[in-house]
Write a structure and sequence with these properties.
71% helix; mainly alpha; 89 residues
């Protein structure tokens, strides 16, 4: 049965291969997105932007909440900030 299944699914091989590659790309992107070192680097950059006057306090707070939520997910904790609660009405 396994050989027959493989022969019948052979025409779909390029699609299955493409799907596998896409799954690998998504997994790597998520790994990098939630990497604690990357998030901490972004937090430092955000603080620098605030200190240099490139962003205001409200923008800093919003982006900091998002980064802290990513850091919480990376460490296995539930996100706590406003970004975790969804969009505001």
């Amino acid at each position: 049965m396994g050989l027959l299944k493989e022969v019948l699914l052979l025409p779909a091989a390029p699609v299955r291969g493409t799907a596998w590659v896409l799954r690998q790309v998504v997994a790597e992107a998520e790994r990098q997105y939630y990497d604690p070192q990357v998030v901490q680097k972004e937090l430092r950059e955000l603080a620098r932007q605030l200190d240099d006057g490139e962003i205001d306090e409200a923008e800093f707070d919003r982006r900091e909440d998002e980064l802290l939520d990513r850091l919480a997910v990376a460490r296995g904790a539930a996100p706590q900030g406003p970004a975790a609660q969804g969009p505001r009405p």
